[in-house]
Amino acid sequence: MENINQKVGQEDLFKRFTRQVVEIFHNKRERKSLDGENGRVVRGRSPASSSDLEDLLALTISGMLGIEYRFLVDKAISYKTPEMKRAKIIYPDIMIIRGDTLLGIIELKIDLGYLSDDWIDKYLNNIVELARVGVVTYKEPKEYGKSETRKLKIARDIHSKSKVVVITSNNNHGKLEKFVQATNATVLYDRETPTNNKYNKSNREVLIESLIKEKDTGWKALETFLRKF
Length: 229
Fold this sequence. Notes:
alpha/beta, Trna Endonuclease, Chain: A, domain 1, two-stranded antiparallel sheet
């Protein structure tokens, strides 16, 4: 994936982000020949888009914040409250870190189509528990397959610096309003969806231009959120 962590205007950043979101979804739908034009080895199901989107969002946010911040994507952290018999392990989609402090967490949802009934409660409970314990641990990879256990302090205001980002309001099964109210989520694309199947390589630019027009909604909300850091 192209690294977009460079000094560009926020307008350009949003355009590049949108273009890459569309490419991620549409490339997943295309026939996957693993041996090039030969076409004798073809993959059936494509890997999930969510990992690529997490990487893209983390890279994008890293370009919007200063170089003093670092980011862990889909990295296991563990903690233990007094009432827990054993440590709990969670995998936040994106962690925003400065120094040795975990400032905030961003969870990414493509849409709400497969949202479990208890997802909201689990997400909110994790934030509450993190604030309570004050410290988490994670494994830092070292050479030759070894790892080192490191600690991260938890920012006191982690509640206000954590966010759920939903790529598209499409396929929400009537859950969107309740979800946004409960989690203060930001929906990036509401009027059009980057997953729209009626677009292909020949008319993909039409979809991208339509999505870019939504900059003043979800993207502005994300920019406002990031000003807290």
